[in-house]
């Protein structure tokens, strides 16, 4: 007779690790199934910064440094998380147009983001989960899950052999391309909206000409309409910058764009003395979020149930709430229904298409205007100097989207058709700030 | 009898991102050792799904 667990967590990403830690702390018998052997290695491209005081997914984060480590406060969820590594505070964001004009958006009173190292975050959560009693089964792929009369069964594959594991509940935390969402029918009404390849390359010795910050690089010389290119600091060491390209199929396109950007483009001088030291990748598959993120005794958390904008702090929150949901469910209470309320009321994309539009406004700005218009606007902005962000924070503070739009619209040279286009994009979140 | 040739993965080109592991319809790719990507040859039916998603052209048919 196979051992029965209270809960099996499929996937040891940020959502699954937090769920495992919290479930084990509640005294549940927890098994974590993960395809990697070395759990802490960062192989999949994810976000890597905490957005400070930037209200997203119903959360408000701050970070307090404390004796070489940091405490991350999740204010709306009322919990704290320890982070043992170095954080890089960033006070700027940048966007470069096709001809190389730069719009800089800056905040003086506090960081916009704190960049963390994913591997440290994994290690912190994994060590705590293990200490709390969670068991890890590594090198194991979760293939499918099925509900039984009293619990659920997880089909897994390890060393080429298929086996079945039993639990009262399963937490599916297997990410954007979740096998379990597919196998259990959670994806039935969730058609693929966007799907594309991503590659992130970490360069050592890169010379970014400004103080560190998230940087968008735009224009047909780089990408045309083939995707988006970002440059940002990486917390694994000194003078490390990551280049991330999010593009379309063929799958090799992001790597080709990265090569062009770092070797041949007008930005190549930043990388003259740099060498790539690490690469991660992903296929981003965007589906409408699941309105009800559970099927019987199987709860779907993080990106397994989402639109793809859960982000790492959001994933951590779903894990935190999922542990509570499973504990209640096992105790005969309606934990999964409670989780569903949390999911639909906090994660903007789940029940509010308007917020989805607002969030992607920066992409609408960049994707909706031709290079000549962006060059025109960026040149004017560069001549006038950085945009200073202050006061209350808006949803798009991180990308600088709203502040940039307001800045552009304040220029007397911007009028007519172009002004109307900017107004239209800016109007998307009128209900937020008024 | 149809002969199925399993795919091969170049260790030099592979960045071990795990995309092919997630996408393989027969779960014929896994990590071994310190997260090295390996093909489980008996399970590979040479469908080519991994070829179309590999971002570094590390997989050969």
Task: Explain this structure.
Chain A has helices at about 15-25, 120-130, 180-185, 255-265, 310-330, 335-345, 350, 355-360, 360-370, 370-385, 400-410, 415-425, 430-434; strands at about 5-10, 30-35, 50, 60-65, 70-75, 80-85, 90, 90-95, 100-105, 115, 135, 140-145, 150-160, 160-170, 195-205, 215, 225-235, 240-245, 275-285, 295, 300, 385-390. Chain A has about 425 residues and is an alpha/beta fold. Chain A is globular. In chain A, strands 1, 2, 11, 12, 13, 14, 20 and 21 form an eight-stranded mixed sheet that branches. In chain A, strands 19-15-18-17-16-8-9-22 form an eight-stranded mixed sheet, with helices on both faces. A three-stranded antiparallel sheet of chain A has the order 3-10-7, with no helix packed on it. In chain A, about 30% of the residues lie in helices and about 30% in strands. In chain A, α1 packs parallel to α2 and α1 (about 15-25) packs parallel to α5 (about 310-330). In chain A, β5 (about 70-75) and β6 form a beta hairpin. Among the domains of chain A are: about 5-50 and about 115-190 and about 290-350, FAD/NAD(P)-binding domain; about 195-285, D-Amino Acid Oxidase, subunit A, domain 2 (D-Amino Acid Oxidase, Chain A, domain 2, 2-Layer Sandwich). Chain B has about 60 residues and is an alpha+beta fold. Chain B has one domain: Alpha-Beta Plaits (2-Layer Sandwich). Chain B has two helices and four strands; from the N terminus they run βαββαβ. In chain B, the strands form two sheets. In chain B, strands 1-4 form a two-stranded antiparallel sheet. In chain B, strands 2-3 form a two-stranded antiparallel ribbon. Chain B is globular. The mean pLDDT of chain B is about 95. The interface between A and B is medium-sized, with 32 and 24 residues.
